Amino acid sequence: MTKQRLLLVNSSGDVFALNTEKKYFRELGKSTDGLKLKRVSAVEFGCWGIGHDQHVYVYIYSSDVPIRVAETTFENQRWSPWGGFTHKNLLPSDRKSWSNETGDKHMTRNDFPLPSEYWEWEGDWFIDENFKGEITDRGGWQYASDFPRQYSPEPKTFSMVRRRKWLRFRRYVAREKWAKISYSDKMEDGGTFIDVSVGGFQLPGQPAGFLSIWAVTVNGKVYVRENVCEECPEGTKWRLVSTDDTSVINISVGPTGLVWAVTWDGLVLVRLGVSRDNVYGSSWSEIPYPTNETRMMQVAVGNNTVWALSRDGIIWFRKGINGDNAWFNNQSAIGSCWIEMVGSLCHISVTPNDQASVFGIGLNDRKPYFRSGVNTSDLGGKTWQLLMLREDLSKLSHADSSFQSLDDEDTSSDYQSSVSLRGTPVSVSSITNSKDSKNNTMKSIKPLKATSLSKPDLSKSKTETKNTIKVSNQSECESTKSKNHKSMGIYNIDSMELKSTITMNPSTSNISETSDEVFTMCTITPAMPRYFWVWFSAMGCYIDEPTNVRWLQTRRGKFHSMYSFSLNQNITKRISPYIRNVILERLYQRNRTEIQQFQYLENAVDKSSWLKKSSMKWYRYGYRNRWEDVTVELEHSLQDNDSGIITIHYCPRGKPVNMQISFSDITCIKRIADPSAQSVFQIHTADTTCKNQPYLLMTSSESDTDEWLSTLLTANSHLWKIKQTIDKDSICSTTLRGDVFIHQPYKTYTKPYEMLWCQQGGHFKRIETCVNGITWAVGYDHTTWVYNQGYGGGLFRATSAMSKECYQQTDTRTISTYENQKWYPVIGYTNKGFLTDCYEWSDSTGIQDKNKESIKLPSSNWHWSGDWSVDFSGQVDQEGWQYSGNFNKPFHQQPGLRDGVRRRRWIRKCKLNTVGPWNKLGSTNIKDVTIQLDTISSTISPVIIWAVGSNGNVLCRLGVTIHNHQGDNWIDIPTDLPFTSVSIGGNNRAWGIAIDGSVYYRPGVTSTNPSGQCWLQVIPTPPQGSTLHLISVGETAVWAVDTKGNLWYREQITPTYPEGTRWCYVCNKVKHVSVGHNDEVWIVSLPNFGKFKHGTGMVYKRLGITTERPMGTGWDRVIGDGWQYVSIRGYIQKYIETEES
């Protein structure tokens, strides 16, 4: 996930960014030409603004993933007996010699100018020799019988035409700077812009990074910027949107594309007809005034909220807005009624979600506020509270601009502050300035001695300009050069009138009159105009948990200041000797009464162990598997940390029976993956793993399960090495629930299923490690996390003795279900009929019943972050439907004559907050990561880490060492196609798989050149119909998995022929593969793998891998079902192979 920023604009036109993960705000970066902004509208990856010259500007945040666009054109030729293949033989009905892919547009290589000055070419045109994962004939030609027909990479008997693809890449270079948007194509009236709003990024079915940009001119006309997306951050052109001769002064766009506007007459308009096929809507609808006297001034649109301000500053909330349904229901876009809220603001802004979603600027005091208590059930919130804003001064260099904070840690109802100087109160009631000191430089005041504290004399303050105060970038006030140090006037730059002074009362001071000690006082800094806010933009600021954002936390009962007061006071609080002696005497008497007089007596009870007992249900395997009521006892020795036993008491046929499980026999304790049975947990032993029959225990509630799991892990922590840093030669894995399990070897095992697996804090989809002790993980939301050498978290509290260096982590998952319908004559498509081949609501296969109301969260630690909505991504129609002949055939976008069924996908997001020993790595999202397999030569040697970005870019992390696991920055490794997987093997051999299944090899990867030289396509590909999507490389071996779950091995890889010769099929039903040292291979299986008819997520190890048989001979089970990902790239084999299973 990208960084979340709240943008602020002050009266000087400076833009500041406040990150939700930081405590201070920082200036967004100044333009070299002195550009000042009037207002901005932000999204996650950038913002748009109106400059002081009334032009529109765009600002794209820096990122390690470049904005890189491929331009393509096709060269076409036809064959003739007398001339062979040439463009001169093209028929009049053929496409042009240079065209686009479909052939309906003439496009030569000279028809691709750069969009603007903010782009540059990466290189010259080159031929793309890749065709659906295969290498084409020499020259990149693709052959067919005619235009257009099915193309092939090799010429055939009836190949009469051919084409080849030319590529050229361009890159956007205007990051971290304000890029001016051209409007030469915009309008006839020549009007300039006065307002701009950005939204629409949640509109379905749009290109990646799509934005809906709306702007208003000084003449009241409304324009939209077309084709703004990730590959075109500037858009292409302005288009006028008719408002029926109504002049608009303000406009706002929500994340779902909902648009509201305010006219010159204070009337509010809403745009109707916004949908995935018509992103800019079709018509305007007027919203009645709240009252006859009320005229609106500004409107702010969120996800399911609309807030507005009237011209007198009154705040209004629009009830009944539902942005998710506004595409289908106009009433959801219009709402039902206006509700007047408490308070007065001059500006208001909302976030794209419904948590802490409202920010504003006070009408009279110009203070920044936020609305507390806003959530999905109460979109109006509770109260207005002040924001705690502080500026990061690390990049400020000028004294006049050095301010520590806007609102310091202490807050109150007005802008007054009181600081204490060793008991001496210093009151600042207002900031004023003398008329005579208007053009004078404010001078500093030297440190005051205690002898100079006396009643101030203002008789000379208006005539002596030497007594003015100068802004200092240090927290000290130097005394003036005047002979008497009694006059210290405080001045206001705007009023130019002396209002008040700093008053000090020496009678209340604890400072001796004869003391020569120097005390540092505060720095008085003018508030105008740096911290005088005129505009906020919160559309790029997702806030799911307001309590986790530091600057949203208020402190009541204390004063706050508009200015920065740094006071270097080293004050030691002391108590009187009498009170100290009384406290010590009482402690002595208590110790003598309660402890000393009983120290020679024996303990009444010798606590050598502790016992925990609970009633549960036990799943008893047999002829008829069933749940049986049992009593479970846990007894653990306090003297021997490895000694403990679990006893299960049950009464079959009325006879009491006891079954015991020793701690030393337990190999793993974990929850099952089924969300509907979260009170069930498994206990694995070596014997139960062989039989795939772990002990299943069900408690009375999920909280009891958490307690038992935490108790069992704590009791067994010494044996499982839980309370220590993860060893560098460990095996890391994740379950289908996202839980993290680690195997830390401490002995040589005779069998793989005897290996111990313990849980660590965190929640991830995949995790990678290496022999150098560096471990990275990727969440379900594609965020990157780095292991920080801590332990614990998860089931253990972050503050408990079982946790160290644990921090908060969030993760987001998308839950989906399919709505199915069947066609009937007269009635049409409906789900009310008789569906024999599918449920009304099901999973993607149609086999499992999955109704929206029956879907549960993965656990009680999760919470929904939105409502159910139709997924419009992919090939779907306007309502999200896909059509097919029956539910077992492929689905397509448009209905056909033989299509009798249809389905559409519904999605809902949920979020998890947990803790673990992980640090978040930047804002670059990735979907795959690989770490160098070889051991580094020294402690300062870099470790090579590659990743695949969420958009398919291949990235290389620089600066990673054993002392800096996070590294410094990403660099992009150019590719012709988006990638799905990468892996670095022995001798830094880098392999990757593109989105079309083609495999690439990249030589030249070294510690000094971690990005390698160039991509070489590996041929031949697997047999037709097999599309590879995952790859893992060992010391010499290369293994891959295709989209159908087939496992492949690359044969005959040698130092002279590092890409091998061909792919060999191994087996099917494979979900994931990991190859480690000595070319050891582990997999995670799909259901019914091989002869083992078990559930999904079983972990197996490949047996029989030798030099003569590099593919191995069989599989050995490691641990039971429920696993999703395993990484053995940091593990060195420490067990003895057994016979094949």
TrEMBL record:
The record's subcellular locations are: Cytoplasmic vesicle, Autophagosome membrane
Where would you say this protein principally sits, based on its record?
A: membrane
What the entry lists under SUPFAM superfamilies is as follows:
Oligoxyloglucan reducing end-specific cellobiohydrolase, PH domain-like
Entry keyword Hydrolase: no
Q: What's in the keyword line of the UniProt record?
A: Repeat
Cellular component annotations (GO), alphabetically ordered: autophagosome membrane
> Composition bias, kind Polar residues: at what positions?
426-443
Pfam families in the cross-refs: Hyd_WA (PF06462), Pex24p (PF06398), Tectonin (PF19193)
Which residue stretches does the UniProt record annotate as biased composition, category Basic and acidic residues?
457-467
Q: Any keyword Repeat?
A: yes
Q: Region (Disordered) spans which residues?
A: 426-467
Q: Where is the PH domain?
A: 681-717
Q: Which SMART domains match?
A: DysFC, DysFN, PH, TECPR
In the record, the note on similarity to other proteins reads: Belongs to the TECPR1 family.
What protein am I looking at? Answer: Tectonin beta-propeller repeat-containing protein 1
